[in-house]
UniProtKB/TrEMBL annotation:
Name recorded for this polypeptide: VOC domain-containing protein
The keyword S-adenosyl-L-methionine appears for this protein: no
Keywords tagged on the record: Metal-binding
InterPro entries: Glyas_Bleomycin-R_OHBP_Dase (IPR029068), Glyas_Fos-R_dOase_dom (IPR004360), Glyoxalase_1_CS (IPR018146), VOC_core (IPR037523)
Superkingdom of source: Bacteria
Amino acid sequence: MTTIIPNFQINETTHIGIVALKVANLSKMRDFYTQIIGLTLLDQTEDSVALGTKNNVLLTLQKVEHPLPITRKTGLFHVAFLLPSRKDLGNTLIHYIESNAPLDGASDHGYSEALYLTDPEGNGIEVYRDKPRSEWDIREDGEIVGITIEMDAQGVVDTADRQQTHFPEGTTVGHVHLKVADLQKTEDFYTQVLGLNLTSNFGAQAKFFAAGSYHHHIGANIWMGQHTPPMAENDLGLAYYSFVVPDTAALSELKDHLTTLSVSFKTETTEQMSLYDPNGILIKISVETNR
């Protein structure tokens, strides 16, 4: 029987790094993310594209030669790009309106203001800015309460200076929201194995997890149903996502914890490892390169 170490916590500065998507039409997806969404093209080969801000890769696209028909599987619900300020969100919203971007909605979540879109291959996208922490609804037990109400779109637009249509430097992948097969197994993995904090419950349908005191780095839901199968190699959608830890000491501490739990992982390099969550989702964990 595995012995759980209940007080293990991943380093509080851990954050999301890169999200990788498997795509059918590489050029169409590249153009959508650069011309519409606001990412910058950083590198390109015949079968892959790297996108981000000028100095930081945030999203990679990997071409799948013979993709399987899209079916209900675990994987990506949305990737969420975190902008540095409300002004940047205003600039982005104006760009989306002028570009006839496929906006699905705009919400105020209490701790953030967010725009929602869907890419040409069905991957969800969130673009958001965080409100000051003083405005978050944080309860005594540490729960960070989220809401979903209409965003003050005019207020967001009024902050814009119309100086930028692409994401500015300082933009990151703030969080990743996943479609999962089993919420309890997902909670056990992200809290007890990876050492994230459970920051919020959305009934019996969704849970949110974070390193440190953030509102969430990972969202997980069963809105598409429970016990959905994992993605196959040729399925379109999420290839993997990554966490970034501050240094090799933090990575070693996590690896020691996983070894204690007899959790399987692969050491890619001295500064990167990978493992799968209970939903068959590949996670890469790397050491911060800008340290």
